[in-house]
């Protein structure tokens, strides 16, 4: 074996063996001695099956070297799991090559220890599964809770209303209590419906199709016509892209954001909402695998909020402004985030009190099928 080949073998970080036709070791590199804790005199010129008290006498390796290799010149990524007496149970990836242009035929055997990689892969798969279970559990919980809570609530409302019809039975104070109770029950109904709607983002999800956001926007504006008129607001949308998405959810997403932009307005200025979009390359989620992504910004000139709350407002039922001034339950943005995440995107908020707010959505144009 020439000097160049020897030096290359020597510098490889993975264990390498050069075997002759009779499967005796001609050369082993430093990595082999280090990882398998062997000394050169116990390796060179020995048959591979004798090494380390026969620890390489592995049935699958024998098949590889004696049956498969003679029939082809290369063998790629042959995985072997084996208990090595000195170093324990290991998963090895074997690659073998016939070395041509040598005086005598030789076999190069590269051994890669992938035990850690396989273990990490198994761990990731397990964690993914756990996450999926707990997500499903949460999903079921939200659905069942909201569904089952409706029934007793209906009873409270129905009997409350019957009672309030019996005016002769009640004095003023009792009537006041009853009205408050019914109002609270009404609020609870709204909360339960919101929770149900939140869980529907996944339970009622539809498959992704090609969706032209430019065609959806006028529908959103038309649905909000009353609010726009009431507030003397203006909604201005630039060109919007076509992307792979759930059309109903895209409409819901834009509607929630524009609705908020009109709702959280300043007393001193009519609301002015702009929707702008551009295509960017985004790879924050998958470094090195940037995707064409729509960056959509919904901006208003409203009351704004402190930037430190920019994350909190996406949680269910989190509100910064009291319901005395602005109606709502705090589920809208949680639904927005859930929709965007289901589409493999991200949503964030940027604001200063009194300076208006901007909501930025990143949505991939194509849904990956991996
Ligand atoms: P809701 O509007 O029903 O309260 P959302 O989930 O849509 O629920 O919003 C959560 C909170 O975020 C709101 O209560 C409000 O305090 C704040 N918020 C949302 N959009 C805006 C906006 N455009 N300008 C100022 N504050 C906003």
Descriptive report:
By secondary structure, the chain is α+β, with helices and mostly antiparallel strands. Helices cover 43% and strands 23% of the residues. The chain contains ten helices and twelve strands. It has helices at residues 3-11, 30-36, 51-54, 59-68, 115-165, 172-203, 213-223, 225-231, 247-263, 332-342, and strands at 16-20, 25-28, 74-84, 88-99, 106-113, 209-212, 234-237, 242-245, 272-282, 291-299, 346-351, 357-364. The strands form three sheets. It has a five-stranded antiparallel β-sheet with strand order 2-1-5-4-3, sandwiched between helices. A five-stranded mixed β-sheet has the order 7-9-10-12-11. β1 and β2 form a beta hairpin. α6 (172-203) packs parallel to α10 (332-342), α7 crosses α9 (247-263) and α9 (247-263) runs antiparallel to α10. The longest helix has 51 residues, at 115-165. The protein is elongated. The mean pLDDT is 90. The chain binds adenosine-5'-diphosphate. Adenosine-5'-diphosphate binds at residues 256, 260-261, 264, 300, 302-305, 313, 319-321, 328-334, 357.
- Average pLDDT score: 90
Rg from Cα: 34 Å
Q: What is the strand content?
A: 15-25%
List the uncertain runs: none
By helix and strand content, what is the structural category? alpha+beta
Number of strands: 12
Q: Which SSEs are present, and which pair or pack?
A:
Blueprint: H1 3-11, E1 16-20, E2 25-28, H2 30-36, H3 51-54, H4 59-68, E3 74-84, E4 88-99, E5 106-113, H5 115-165, H6 172-203, E6 209-212, H7 213-223, H8 225-231, E7 234-237, E8 242-245, H9 247-263, E9 272-282, E10 291-299, H10 332-342, E11 346-351, E12 357-364
Parallel strand pairs: 7-9
Antiparallel strand pairs: 1-2, 1-5, 3-4, 4-5, 6-8, 9-10, 10-12, 11-12
Bound molecules: adenosine-5'-diphosphate (ADP).
